[in-house]
Structure formats: C-alpha cells, structure tokens
Amino acid sequence: MTAILNVKNISKTYGTKGANAYTAIRNLSFTMEKGEFIGIMGPSGSGKTTLLNTIATLDPVTEGEIIIGGTSLSAMNEEQLSDFRSQQLGFIFQDFNLLENMSVFENIALPLSLRNTAVPRISATVQQASTLLGISGILEKFPAEISGGQKQRTAIARALVHNPALLLADEPTGALDSTNAAILMETLSDLNKEQKVSVLMVTHDPLSASYCSRLLFIKDGEIDQELHASNSREQFYKEILEVLAGTGGAR
Ligand SMILES: Nc1ncnc2c1ncn2[C@@H]1O[C@H](COP(=O)(O)OP(=O)(O)O)[C@@H](O)[C@H]1O
Ligand SMILES: [Mg+2]
C-alpha cells in the first residue's frame, strides 16, 4: 500500500510561549493509505479543525512533519505551498462556497481557471467531472436556480476537477438536513470506492462518520481511539455511538 499522507509527531501551539500559548495538537501521528476514507471525530475544541488546517497547508505546525504524496510541507515556502494546495488538494466547505454570479460550469472550472489551464482542456475536464456527479445537464444554470443537492454536487465536482491527491472536508454535512447529508455522504462514499479518491473528513455526526473506512477520535489534541469500518454500515454506526457514549471498548 502507498501512503498518501504521513502525519509525524505534530504539535500545534497557538500564540507565543507563556500564558497566552495554547497547544491544540499534541504529538499526533497517523498514516493514511491511498484510497482510504478517514473521518476525524471528537468533541468541540478537541483540535479537529486545527489538524485539518495543518494538513491543508493553511497553518504551519509548531513541531513535527506532514508529508503528502511524498512531499514534506515544511520544505516549502509560501508560494510553493500555495501551488501545492491548488494542485494536490481539494476542499469541500460546510456552506459549499459557490460563487453566485458564476454558472455551475464556471464554478466547477474555477480551480482550473486559476491555474491558467487551456480553455478546451477546461471544457473537457468540467464535462467529465460533471458527468461523474450527474450534473452535466445544469452547467449553464446559476447557483440560485439549482437545488441544494445539485449545489452539493457542484461543490464536489469543483473539489475534484483538478484530480487532487487528497480531498479535505471540514463538517461537510454540518449545515444539511438528514436527507441531504445522506446524499452527500453516499456521493463521497461512491467517489471513494469507485474513483479511489482519498478523503479526509472532519465530522461530529455519527451517521456521516459511518460512511468512512476508518475513524480517528481526537481528544485534547491527541488520538484517543481508532475504529475500523465493520461489515455493515449499520453495525459501524452502532459502534460509533458506543464510542461517543464512552462505552466502546478499546479495539
Ligand atoms: N487561531 C487560534 N488561536 C488560538 N487558539 C485557537 C485558534 N484556533 C483554535 N484555537 C483553539 O484550539 C482548540 C482547538 O480548536 P479547533 O481545532 O477549532 O477544535 P475543533 O475543530 O475540534 O472544535 C480550541 O481550544 C480553540 O479555542
Ligand atoms: Mg472545527
């Protein structure tokens, strides 16, 4: 198996040393294989977003090292990090962040347009991504004219259009009702299984988490427990609830 992500003994301290310093991540390590779908769970304030932001190259670690696809983030300067981010990473945001004055096509094309990709190539790639997500029929529409589910699919197509090594999502179902949350998770799960997209997702929702292949439970900035998917999603869901209730045994 090939590691897509190596998180090696990272710590993240906000503020300068002394009374104002707060350590949100403590000596945390894990490895993610290519094609895994990892969920990060944990109470509010446990460091989930901090962890995701360090992997997203948005925030430097205080100690340790993060390696994505063999490249160490600490070896790069700001400009290199920015290029790396736009080429190797895809992002799904809680509110989807679609640009209202751009069509679905233009929204999906954004990561390519920002990289000065040639127009015929953009067109072909957007067609491909939108077909994959089942939204090739609405490319000329604007976000205000499409349903919530279609907005999600547009956001996912945009996150995947440049074929990123790693897809990162922070609470992607946080603002959705349970029906749309399930649709989003089914879509991510299909992309993971069929297209082998590697997904790292932060969630506090046990149902969303049950679509993952592995879960890391964070507590006070450390990995407290790890859970691998069971044979059925229903069984995995039960096990997740047990861990959250504090009744799950060490496995
Ligand atoms: N920019 C920051 N400056 C100082 N403290 C921060 C900053 N961002 C987060 N924190 C603190 O770090 C801890 C972890 O935050 P966060 O990673 O957002 O947790 P989670 O996403 O699990 O709710 C919290 O105590 C939070 O207050
Ligand atoms: Mg958070």
TrEMBL record:
Gene3D superfamilies in alphabetical order: P-loop containing nucleotide triphosphate hydrolases
Chain ranges of the ABC transporter domain: 5-245
Gene Ontology annotations for the cellular component aspect, listed alphabetically: membrane protein complex
Keyword field: ATP-binding, Nucleotide-binding, Transport
Pfam family, one: ABC_tran
GO molecular function, one term: transmembrane transporter activity
InterPro entries xref list: AAA+_ATPase, ABC_transporter-like_ATP-bd, MacB-like_ATP-bd, P-loop_NTPase
Keyword Transport: yes
Coiled-coil zones: none
Family designation: Belongs to the ABC transporter superfamily.
Protein name (database record): ABC transporter ATP-binding protein YxdL
Source species: Planococcus massiliensis
Source taxonomy: Bacteria, Bacillati, Bacillota, Bacilli, Bacillales
